[in-house]
Amino acid sequence: MFTFSALIYDGYKQQLVTGDYEDRTQFDVFLNAKFGVHVCMWAAKEPTQKVIDAMLHASLVAKGNSIKNKNLKAKY
After folding, report:
1. CA-based nearest residue to 24, from 5, 37, 52, 11
2. Model pTM score
3. Domain boundaries, the chain
4. For the stretch 41-74, what's the b/e string if a residue is b when 16 or more beta carbons lie within 10 angstroms of its beta carbon?
5. pLDDT tens figures, 17-55
6. CA distances from 64 to 14, 32, 52, 58 (A)
7. Were 7 and a residue from 23, 42, 46, 76 both cysteine, which residue would form a disulfide, CB within 3.0 to 4.6 Å?
8. Could you give the strand order of the β-sheet that contains 14-21, starting from the edge strand earlier in sequence?
9. CA pair distance 43, 67, nearest whole angstrom
């Protein structure tokens, strides 16, 4: 899951639009349904906070296991 952001121009004004979607295609479908014809001037994709939290938790668990077992090393 990702948080997508886009600066769009719909013929009247610029807007910053954000939303959480599985992939860019789903975000594009949303933009087309909401705005119809528009120009995407800028777009970005970042993991959602839930994904970031899961990655951090997995990293901390891996580090904890590597401390308990010297032969086990976390891969990043």
Report:
1. 5
2. 0.67
3. 2-68
4. eeeeeeeeeeeeeeeeeeeeeeeeeeeeeeeeee
5. 999 999 999 999 999 999 999 999 999 999 888 888 888
6. 47, 46, 18, 10
7. 42
8. 14-21, 2-9, 39-47
9. 41
Closest residue by Cα to residue 62 from 74, 76, 52, 71: 74
| Surface-to-core class of residue 28, CB atoms within 10 Å of its CB (0-12 exposed, 13-18 middle, 19+ buried) | middle
Burial track 15-24 (b if 16+ CB lie within 10 A, e otherwise) = eebeeebeee
Task: Please state, in angstroms and rounded to a whole number, the distance separating the CA atoms of residues 32 and 6.
Answer: 12
**pLDDT the model gives residue 70:** 56
Closest C-alpha among 12, 19, 18 to residue 36: 12
